[in-house]
Amino acid sequence: MIARILTAATALTVFGGEATAAPSVAASAPQIKVPAPVLGWASWNAFASSINFEILKTQVDAYAAPGGLKDAGYTYFNLDDGWWQGARDAAGNMVVNETEWPGGMKAVADYIHSKGLKAGIYTDAGASGCGYLNTTRPQSDGMTAGMRGHELRDAKQFQNWGFDFVKVD
Fold first, then answer.
1. Domain contains 51
2. Quick one: pLDDT at residue 14?
3. Domain extent at residue 93
4. pTM of the prediction?
């Protein structure tokens, strides 16, 4: 659709303050259909790292309510930085604060899915995320909230929790 619009349009060129029409350029064949972009929402712009399961559930409910973003075609609900502060168990698996995330991150993904949405989650490719910067939540031990050195383990953990999308900063 975009390709047809672009090729059917007449371009305008401005010379000395005067607009002149440039000839249309034919599209090269064959054309391919481009899928619509993925539409989603992430918690960071509204909540930064001040996020927990209760806030997330309230936002998911509003997102999925009649007339909400889900009805507008948004399919992903993404939990951004601030959900995890770097604790790992003896095997190197991420451990979350069960007070802030009752049932853990599987419960989060399950709740998002229960509303007919896809679940996304944030991580950082480095040793540390940036969620502690200019927010209410301090970094737990300085430099451990990223996936560096745990890439495969963390990817499998996100998959086991049921997340459909991972944002890697």
1. yes
2. 35
3. 40-168
4. 0.75
